[in-house]
Design brief:
Layout lengths: L2 H16 L16 E6 L2 E6 L2 E6 L6 E2 L7 E6 L5 E6 L6 E6 L6 E2 L7 E6 L5 E5 L10
Antiparallel strand pairs: 1-2, 2-3, 3-4, 5-6, 6-7, 7-8, 9-10
Length: 141
């Protein structure tokens, strides 16, 4: 994503969160640390309090999507906005999961002890991720 696009997304998230109930003024965000916003399908998903939250791009109250033990980060909405890929630390290391953007039970996609991070979606609808894995090396004869 280009820097200008990231700046626009962060500005949009700032404006939307400023409209939520409990905000002191339109230019003051409620207490919290909002990170890793993604936008698609008419919604913004972001990380706060180590969980994933969703708010309509038109504004409103954010809905908590996850409340699991462990931290969820790097949410990525699918192009159609129906699915959500993200990185979570449910079993000790970072793995990639996918779930409905409406909420529900996450499905684990990666099973490797190295850290994996959700990056986005391919045009074909496959989750893209990066990993510290190394390809197997052939032993010398």
């Amino acid at each position: 994503m280009q820097i200008a696009a990231k700046g626009s997304l962060i500005a949009a998230l700032t404006v939307l969160l400023a409209r939520t109930p409990g905000a002191v003024a339109a230019d003051t965000l409620p207490d919290g640390f909002y990170r890793y916003p993604t936008i698609g399908g008419g919604a913004i998903v972001f990380t706060a309090e180590d969980d994933l939250w969703k708010v309509p791009v038109t504004g409103g109250v954010a809905l908590r999507l996850t409340a699991h033990e462990g931290e969820e980060r790097f949410p990525k909405l699918s192009p159609d906005g129906r699915l959500l890929a993200f990185t979570a630390q449910y079993e000790g290391n970072d793995d990639v999961y996918v779930m409905s953007a409406a909420g529900g039970e996450p499905v684990r996609l990666t099973f490797h002890p190295a850290a994996d991070q959700a990056l986005g979606w391919s045009p074909e609808g496959q989750v893209l991720f990066r990993s510290r894995r190394r390809p197997a090396r052939r032993a010398a004869p």
